Amino acid sequence: MDKFLLLCISLFIGFGVIFLYYFGPFIFKKNTNIQHGCQCSIKKEKCQYCISNDNIEYLKQQEKERQRLEEIKNRAYQQRLYQQQLYQQQQEQLYQQQLYQQQLYQQQQQRLQQQQLYQQQQQQQRVQQQQLYQQQQQQQQRLQQQQRLQQQKQSAAQMINDQMVPMDIDTPLVNTRGLSNIQPHKLSQSQMAEIRLNERIQLYGLMIRREIPGDGNCQMHALSDQIYGDLDHSALIRTVIVDWLRVNGGFKLPNGATLSDFVYDSSWEEYCNNMSKNGTWGDHLTLVAAAEIFKINITIISSVASQTSFFIEIKPKVKSDYYILLSHIAEFHYGSLCQL
Questions:
Q1: Is 172-182+208-339 assigned to CATH 3.90.70.80?
Q2: 66 CB burial (10 A radius; 0-12, 13-18, 19+)
Q3: Could you write out the DSSP letters of every residue in 92-121?
Q4: What pLDDT, in 10s, does the model give residues 189-202?
Q5: Is the pTM here over 0.85, yes or no?
Q6: Most buried by CB count within 10 Å: which residue of 7, 175, 284, 326?
Q7: Could you tell me the residue ranges of all domains in the chain?
Q8: Backbone CA torsion sign across 311, 314, 315, 320
Q9: Which residues are catalytic?
């Protein structure tokens, strides 16, 4: 009896619990979900308290979201500000670097200008020293020429006192004698000729450009000095002159005569062969050839005794503005002249 009663009570309690679990909400119309200390309806209709709490929670969430967004904005602003500051610093550094480079460049330019100015000053000083040296050399040469001229005048005066009458040296300019081992005049006659030549050189404001060696090639040396500025082209000049003469024996001069007309003692071929030899004196014909080959006007100041024929000009057929100046101690030696 007791066991049956206990079984019935247990079944009753079990069925009651199951019934209340499944059908209790429909009977009492209230849920068991306690939210904010209240019980809302089973239809999920919230009470005013829950609605108020939800609004407060929503506002809190909105505030948190606003704060989060504000914080994000602040961080973005701080980051932009930092980037701007960093950019400004970089620009400032770049400006400082450019300013420093510009200062370095200006300093380099100043040093370069100073170096150039110093070099120009040094160059000017060297030029001035060279000019001064050349002037001293020219003065020394003029002094030596004056002394030599004075000595020659004294020698001439002594010859006059000794009643020595010089021979006429107004002879032709064509060389038919051959090599230079033959001395055509006595020493006294050469001295008189040199005196006349120096007086005429001074009369025209000229001076000796270079001492020409008397080795039989003096005319070629003088032409080389006038044309090339040195004595190294004498052999070349002789070669081209002789080659030109070989094929131009019939070349006509302004007076109508040909070059070969001036050769009496030998044939034209023999004359050219003789002129091709080293040491053979040049003559008027070789000067005509030089004028035609190099297209130059050749002016010769001669020592001949005649006062009307000592100034000789040889001009090429082709008009030229190029002039060279030679001196000539008649039948003895050619020299190279220039303006004082």
A1: yes
A2: exposed
A3: HHHHHHHHHHHHHHHHHHHHHHHHHHHHHH
A4: 777 888 888 888 88
A5: no
A6: 326
A7: 172-182+208-339
A8: negative
A9: 215, 218, 333
